[in-house]
Fold this protein.
Amino acid sequence: MTQKTAIVTGGASGIGLAIAQTFVRRDIRTIIIGRDVAKLAAAKEALGLQCHTIAYDLTDIAGIPKLVETITSTHGAVDVLVNNAGINMKKVFTEVTDEDFQRILLTNVTSVFALSREVVKTMLANDVKGSIINISSMASQYGLPKVIAYSASKAAIEGMTRAMASELSPRGIRVNCIAPGFIVTPMTAKAFSDDPERMQKAVNRTPLGYMGQPDDIGEAALFLALSTSKYVTGVVLPVDGGNSIGF
């Protein structure tokens, strides 16, 4: 089989790193895009020769076409794109500024659109039967206080996933979304650090009774990346221990 090439944004830590690790274990050439040079170097050292890193700030929308051109000229056509990079902000609704809101949307939505568009162009040009995997959140499934911008951005991602799947699937490109529940990551730890009641509430409404691990998302992403999911497109897959249906 021809080796697959994947891009994982925000792949130097947390869920993104777990996805990259899972891909590398399955001999998928994995290109991690991130902003933190030190974290990228550590990921490269941990994952080895199948991992390649690029330091780039995806909020620089104008440079994304050139970024994708560089990747494809170096590594060939891209088979899998995982749009994982994202930022959160916990703030009371009335204190969220216009600038706060736009900053979250730029990182979590606009950059996902721009990068996906450019990667899809290369997939179509190379007749690649590709897979795009967007990362959403349970914040799009139900109302969470103090994360208005993040919630809006993830709801947008799920809408984009369905629209992209409808348009691109007839051309051989599947588009799906993973909606992680409460996963043990630095971002989650920061969100819960000053709010133990919020953390306990999250665990209590999760039927499995515990928070997930980044590897749980990695395995789900691998399933959606490979031909084992060849008849799956346009879905939003909760990987949440049942949190979205918990009481």
